[in-house]
Design goal:
The structure is a single chain. By secondary structure, the chain is of the alpha+beta class. Among the domains are: 5-150, Acid Proteases (Cathepsin D, subunit A, domain 1, Beta Barrel); 162-256, Rossmann fold (3-Layer(aba) Sandwich); 276-339, 2-Layer Sandwich (Dna Ligase, domain 1), CATH 3.30.1490. The chain contains 9 helices and 27 strands. Strands 2-3-10-4-9-8-7-6-5 form a 9-stranded mixed β-sheet, with no helix packed on it. The chain has a 5-stranded antiparallel β-sheet with strand order 25-24-23-26-27, with helices on both faces. The protein has a 4-stranded parallel β-sheet with strand order 13-12-17-18, sandwiched between helices. The longest helix has 14 residues, at 387-400. It is elongated.
Length: 471
């Protein structure tokens, strides 16, 4: 019978199979599953024998120390953290060593960048012959991060990214510019028709099929999903994310922005100013609905309208009530909104990339038209945005979770008001009016998010030929 070893609530451990000679682990019997810090998680290998590569910074105080690890994937599992958030994680099995004891451990991979401990040792990993003393720490022999000095280090290698441009319109201006910008920076970009994708859901490795073949793994996806296929496009985008691809805008963020009622509720909760908006399901509320929106003139807008379609101005109360009743008769989902007269048929389009406003234009409606959309014949000119306008644009994109957004703002008498947030903003108007290379800015932001794995060492496995901190 093996000797009983005592573990403190924190211990030094090593993971020889991953090439990690020293890690500080929190020993937590309250957690069922063990977890290991991992970023830039990259699945690879055949579907029947999937593996995963990932980057780890073993020393929380030295983010420059980066190690690349790889291991076979044994499962993918939903894990609920202590704060109640559920995350689908890769599960691997590797050997851990504490003192002289070495044993196999199953652990999930998750980003613990904000945690003081790069590993959490749960109760299922504490084997027979081990006891935990919650009042002690570092009972077993101590290690040191100096052990990593013996590992040869190289600079991370810049590599071209494989990018999927998810669009049904590969020949429009925005698609062509994104392709041009990506290729100019040395990346491989492929256009994929959203509606021609179909999915195999289940198993360890998610699959996306296209024209009878399984799509290869992409490093990143730029979603340009049309409004008519929003629901299916979001499902496809979630499947891409499941393969490990970075999505420039997430499916959830796109869904929030496309549902205008939900978007307005989110922005309102964040105290972002908007035109007064009203919504009701019952025809008995029509008269009161007009009053809630501030009377006439008012705007009636379909919840999933785009490019100005489904947006109608009612100049009188009678016209407003008739319009609302007509929309209800079509079983359409819509909202009623205050008409900001002082905007005089103009609005500002603020283009946000990665939390920064990279360009702004003023759009003015064509004569006899109140909608300023360029697709409706409106004109655009470059403008210098005020600090208040830039701030509200950044906040609106952030609250909806969008990395890239076109935030439309009305200049009202009491300050900027967010009219709408577009998750697939067109590039032609903003680039033509400002002369800025917005497409390249989007690709550069994508590059910053999809970090190439450091070429340090493939810890423990040969690469297949196929190619404020918390505790």
């Amino acid at each position: 019978m093996s000797e009983t070893i005592i573990l403190g609530w924190e211990e030094w451990v090593s993971a020889p199979g991953l090439g990690l000679p020293a890690l500080k682990a929190k020993v937590d019997t309250g957690a069922r599953t063990s977890a290991l810090h991992a970023s830039v998680i990259e699945p690879f290998g055949p579907p029947d024998a999937p593996q995963v590569r990932f980057l780890i910074q073993p020393d929380p105080d030295n983010p420059g120390l980066e190690i690349t690890c790889s291991a076979p994937v044994t499962d993918r599992r939903n894990v609920t953290s202590s704060n109640g958030e559920t995350e689908l994680r890769f599960v691997i099995q590797t050997e851990l060593q504490i003192g002289d004891r070495r044993w196999p451990v199953e652990m999930t991979l998750t980003n613990r960048d904000q945690m003081a401990y790069r590993m959490l040792l749960g109760r299922t990993s504490i084997t027979e012959g081990m006891q935990v003393d919650p009042n002690s720490s570092f009972v077993q022999p101590e290690l040191s991060f100096d052990l990593y000095k013996a590992i040869p280090r190289k600079r991370p290698t810049k590599r071209p990214l494989r990018i999927a441009l998810l669009t049904r319109e590969p020949d429009n201006y925005s698609s062509k510019r994104l392709i041009e910008a990506a290729e100019a920076r040395g990346h491989v970009i492929e256009t994929i028709d959203t509606t021609r994708c179909y999915m195999r859901i289940g198993g360890v490795a998610p699959e996306i099929h296209y024209d009878g073949k399984v799509l290869p793994r992409f490093d990143a996806v730029i979603p340009r999903i049309g409004a008519s296929v929003t629901s299916y496009g979001m499902a496809v985008l979630r499947q891409f994310k499941g393969t490990g691809a970075y999505c420039l805008n997430s499916a959830d963020a796109i869904g929030r922005s496309r549902d205008k009622l939900l978007a307005h509720q989110i922005l309102s909760q964040a105290q972002i100013r908007m035109p007064v908006t009203a919504f009701a399901a019952s025809p008995k509320d029509t008269k009161d609905l007009v009053g809630l929106a501030g009377g006439t003139p008012l705007v009636v807008k379909l919840l999933e309208s785009t490019q100005g379609r489904g947006v109608v101005l009612a100049e009188t109360r009678k016209a407003g009530e008739s319009l609302i009743d007509a929309f209800r008769g079509l079983n359409a989902s819509f909202l009623v909104q205050e008409f900001v007269a002082e905007a005089a048929g103009s609005d500002l389009r603020c283009f946000v990339v990665g939390g920064k406003v990279v360009g702004g234009i003023k759009r003015t409606a064509a004569e006899g038209e109140f909608r300023s959309n360029l697709h409706r014949g409106g004109s655009a000119k470059s403008v210098r945005l005020t600090k208040a306008e830039r701030d509200v644009a950044r906040r609106a994109a952030r609250e909806l979770g969008l990395q890239v957004a076109g935030v439309d703002i009305l200049q009202s008498s009491d300050g900027p008001k967010v009219l709408e947030v577009n998750s697939s903003p067109g590039l032609q108007g903003i680039e033509t009016a400002t002369g800025k290379d917005i497409a390249t800015m989007m690709i550069m932001h994508l590059e910053a998010q999809v970090r190439p794995l450091a070429q340090l060492r493939e810890g423990g496995l040969r690469k297949p030929k196929s190619g404020k901190r918390l505790a």
